[in-house]
Specification:
single chain; mainly alpha
């Protein structure tokens, strides 16, 4: 999943429509991307030996 592409797509959607549903979609995509980044950091921390 490419976070840069999703973020750009979400911004374009908000700019094109400008309604609350598009803003909600953009917010949900942003939250999902942050969650996936957080999961990747946790997975990397568990993968490395202490």
């Amino acid at each position: 999943m490419n976070t840069a592409t999703n973020a750009a797509s979400a911004r374009n959607t908000v700019a094109a429509k400008g309604n609350w549903l598009a803003k909600l979609r953009a917010l949900a995509l942003h939250a999902l991307n942050l969650h996936l980044q957080n999961c990747a950091v946790i997975a990397e921390a568990h993968r490395r030996p202490q």
